[in-house]
Amino acid sequence: SYRPGARFGGNAIREASCAGLYGRSRRDASPFARAQVADAGDTAANPFNINEAVETIEAAADDLLGTGARLMTLGG
């Protein structure tokens, strides 16, 4: 559906985080000077089958962790 809520969580987080990409934040922090950061994008999960969705998300996380990356997940 096109209802607001968790469906738009990922894009809302991306939009809010873009404010800190260029220049310094109000706290004079530069997180990108200390770490290499990448957005791995959305993981397409079945919203009608929670068990399948969890398996899909875990598999995507395992793929990323297998590269040696550290993982931080955010979402709605």
From TrEMBL:
Q: Which PROSITE patterns match?
A: ARGINASE_2 (PS51409)
Recorded GO MF terms: hydrolase activity, acting on carbon-nitrogen (but not peptide) bonds, in linear amidines; metal ion binding
What InterPro entries would the database entry show? Ureohydrolase, Ureohydrolase_dom_sf
Sequence similarity: Belongs to the arginase family.
Protein name per its UniProtKB record: Arginase family protein
Q: Which organism is it from?
A: Streptomyces beijiangensis
Source species taxonomy = Bacteria, Bacillati, Actinomycetota, Actinomycetes, Kitasatosporales
